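Reviewer 2 asked us to include a model.

Predict the structure of this chain.
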Amino acid sequence: MSEFEYQDSLQLEDETKEPPKYKVILINDDYSTFEFVTYILKKVFFKTQKDAEQITLDVHKKGFGVCGIYDKEIAETKVLVVHQLAEEAGYPLRCEMEEE
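Predicted model (structure tokens):
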């Protein structure tokens, strides 16, 4: 490898960045039950019972709870699935994503 090729490869490595990650957040409402929110956290985000209950308490007490941090496409899919499940169950549970 020539010196020029070596310097080019170093420059490319320096310019490569990791894609941004996104937090998926559940938003509190006055209608979704504790049990339903816990169910969502276990089914969609694969949380343990204990972790699901803690995040549900955060949603209730703080107004929101962080469910996880994901690549953009995964975060978008999880938000969509939460909204679909909530609609099917008749709850107004909202879920958002924001860049970390």
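Residues 72-89 form the longest helix (18 residues). Residues 24 and 75 are 6 Å apart (CA to CA). We have added this to the supplementary material.
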